[in-house]
Amino acid sequence: MKKALINVKIYDFAKFLNNGFVVFDQEIFQVGDMNDFVDGGYKIIDGQGALLMPGLVCAHTHIYSTFARGLALPFDPKNFQEILDQMWWKIDRHIDNETSYYSGLVAASEFLRNGVTTIIDHHASGKEITGSLASLKKAVCDVSSVRALFAFEVSDRFNVEDAIQENVNFIKHFKTPFTAGLFGLHASMSLSEETLKKVSENLKDTPIHIHVAESVMDEEDSLAKYQERVIERLDRHGLINEDSLLVHCVHVNDKELDIIKKRKASIVVNVTSNMNNAVGLPNVNKFTELGVPVMIGNDGLSSGIANEYINVLYSAHLFHKKPTAFGLTQLLAMINNGYDYVSRHLNVKLGRIEAGYEADMLLVPYLAPTNLDENNALGHLFYGMMHSFKPSDVFVAGEQLVENYELTNKKLVLELENSQEIANSLWNRIKGEK
């Protein structure tokens, strides 16, 4: 049975409707003004004046970091490499497929509650590599009904052949409107020449998903070992295919940006993580002025994306020491770049509330204290809603996955009860490491 959401304000980052309706099942069939609504025997959902908008996209995350929450490890890093050594690399080398699966359930459930319906994940699991992406896909896409692109980050820390094959197999066998694969690489500083040659032999035309110049140490390592910068090195190996995701890019220079533009790759910024790790901030204005597509991720630091929108804007003001250096129009372009990217790779239409698009939608209660119309809807969304963003209802492909702030998927809710036990097993392995 088709459903109809009625009595809703509609804003999809392109147009605004003050009192409208949407008829949908898996995709949207009709959008219009309530004055024109005719009940065709639909299941009626009364939005009661809430704002209806598209589900959000997180363009870079690390689901494997989910069970780091509350984990106390000796931690006194002096630089970025020591952050990896003392925290993240201690964790990821103990992750097996069971851990990947349950961390996927937890992350997906929290993403849904925070209005994120599509993610691009960058995975690492040293204890079990083979089958790890399928484990994530089962948890995130099959059980939780979140759309996701996955990649395993090849690194010399792991069995390189297994990691390469995990990417190759997932890319080959999993391509649906809910999931697809990219070719994951960790970062230049953890990838030898031999490893990059092996990747090149297996890559074909698949986009890569890699951390680039997150810390200046990545560039210094590449210059010291290979006498070239990170992007130059990746390009020499023929790895920067069209639509590759180059994550962070805090310390890239103009020559590297020219290569990125020429190869039609995209940059994903994660400014909250950059601030947390004290590695610097990306020059987002320079990226966009050059015409390089820029998207927004959270680097696994949370299970939401609204806070990242906020920090992208504010950090750009601080970076340029000018409160008008970066505005909501530029932020909007980055949000839309994310929709465009995942739509291409999942072969569906995401990011609009209009006929022919997938019914990935959020209902967000909001009582506007001032006039709300097509001219200021983005300002209301950013300054009035994003700081405490919590949709009451979430739909993916027309299925209501969150209703009145509660998950509707009973299987998911039941399986989440095992997450603490799985996390404790992971913590015990980490703390028992010699």
And the CATH topology of the largest domain?
TIM Barrel
CATH architecture of the largest domain: Alpha-Beta Barrel
Q: Outline the biggest β-sheet.
A: 9 strands, mixed
What is the helix fraction of residues, given as a range? Answer: 25-40%
The whole-angstrom Rg is 21 Å
Portion in beta strands: 15-25%
Query: How many discrete structural domains?
Result: 2
What is the structural class? Answer: alpha/beta
Low-confidence stretches: none
Number of strands: 18
In whole angstroms, the N-to-C terminal distance is 58 Å
What's the helix count?
15
Tell me, what is the CATH class of the largest domain?
Alpha Beta
Principal-axis shape equals globular
Calculate the mean pLDDT score and round it: 96
| CATH H-level homologous superfamily name of the largest domain | Metal-dependent hydrolases
Summed up, what is this model?
The protein is of the alpha/beta class and 434 residues long.
Folded structure, characterized:
This protein has two domains: about 5-55 and about 350-410, Urease, subunit C, domain 1 (Roll); about 55-345, Metal-dependent hydrolases (TIM Barrel, Alpha-Beta Barrel). Helix 2 (about 95-115) packs across helix 15 (about 420-430). With about 425 residues, the protein is of the alpha/beta class. The longest helix is centred in the last third of the chain and has 19 residues, at about 330-345. It contains 15 helices and 18 strands.
